Amino acid sequence: MESIRTKIIEGAAQLFSKKGYLTTSVQDIVQFCQISKGSFYNYFKSKEELAFLILKKKNAKRWESIWELEEIEGWSKEKLFIEQLKVQLQYVIDNKELFHLAFQSSHESDESKAFLSKLQIQDIEWLSSKVVQVYGDAVEPYAFDCAVMLLGLILSYSLRIFMIKQETIDINTMINFVIRRMNGIVKSFDINETPIFNKDLLNDFLQIERQERLYLYKQVKASINKMRKALKSMKKSKKTLEPLFACLDDLENEFSNCETEPRSYIVEGLLLYLQRQQIHELEQELHNLLSFVQTKL
């Protein structure tokens, strides 16, 4: 069942990338995936809902790529920052049509609006911390202002790319150009200047996000406990049950800290592993949990 959903997501992502979102129809997707339209609508209400989910998944992959770059040794802080900014810019360029759709629907959809707001908050928080790492503690009072300006520069140039052929723009040249502008901006701050942006302005949104995450974590942990209870009542060997309990422990660990988001690819991988074991007593709980997690993450 879930393999069909995954097949639709992966197939649509390929088609959107190759043909573009606007020129890809539901009929194109079902033909590419070799399924019926009925199967498509069993999982998704519309092409728009599917596109929005793909954008969220690509956002998760973007952050995975950014964190992976942190593991590379031998780079200066500025070199690392530049390479991470390239990932950020490429993400926007690769998904320009989906972003356009999200911005359009944000006027009518609370979910789209919340996602775009969350995206900007994530970017500003991350950029502000990187600014301090690269330019030093002296710039910390203005880190959020720098982040807002840097994000503005990147998005402004990205919008121009939307309007012209992408191949005429070299991302390396653009990011290096933007960084040189940021170098000048950092030097221009007066020690007595009052910052415009700071973390306090984001606290209301961050508090709401933490509350939503706490609710998600409670729901997931309740499901995990139900599955543990079901496994304990089963008459199976210790050798059979041990990897299942270990998998549930790993799953719970992903939801152990409300200050950080679980890694969606690990969560889905663990749930799909449990599904493949075809344990009847866990089937319904796993199906519900996988659907819930895929919607929320």
What does this structure look like?
With 297 residues, this protein is mainly alpha-helical. The chain has three domains: 1-44, Homeodomain-like (Arc Repressor Mutant, subunit A, Orthogonal Bundle); 52-197, Tetracycline Repressor, domain 2 (Orthogonal Bundle), CATH 1.10.357; 206-296, no CATH class. The protein has 13 helices and no strands. Helix 1 (2-19) packs across helix 2, helix 4 (47-69) runs antiparallel to helix 5 and helix 10 packs antiparallel against helix 11 (238-254). The longest helix has 30 residues, at 203-232. The protein starts with a helix and ends with a helix. InterPro entries: DNA-bd_HTH_TetR-type_CS, Homeodomain-like_sf, HTH-type_Tx_Regulator, HTH_TetR. This is Transcriptional regulator, TetR family. It comes from Seinonella peptonophila. One of its GO terms (molecular function) is DNA binding.
How many individual β-strands? 0
Strand content: under 5%
Question: What low-confidence regions span 5 or more consecutive residues with pLDDT below 50?
Answer: none
In angstroms, what is the radius of gyration?
22 Å
Enumerate how many helices there are, as a single number. 13
Question: Helix-strand pattern, N to C?
Answer: HHHHHHHHHHHHH
Q: By helix and strand content, what is the structural category?
A: mainly alpha
User: What share of residues is helical?
Assistant: over 70%
> What is the CATH third-level topology name of the largest domain?
Tetracycline Repressor, domain 2
First-to-last CA distance: 20 Å
CATH architecture label of the largest domain? Orthogonal Bundle
The major sheet is characterized as:
none
- The best one-word shape is globular
Mean pLDDT: 84
CATH class placement of the largest domain? Mainly Alpha
Tally of separate domains: 3
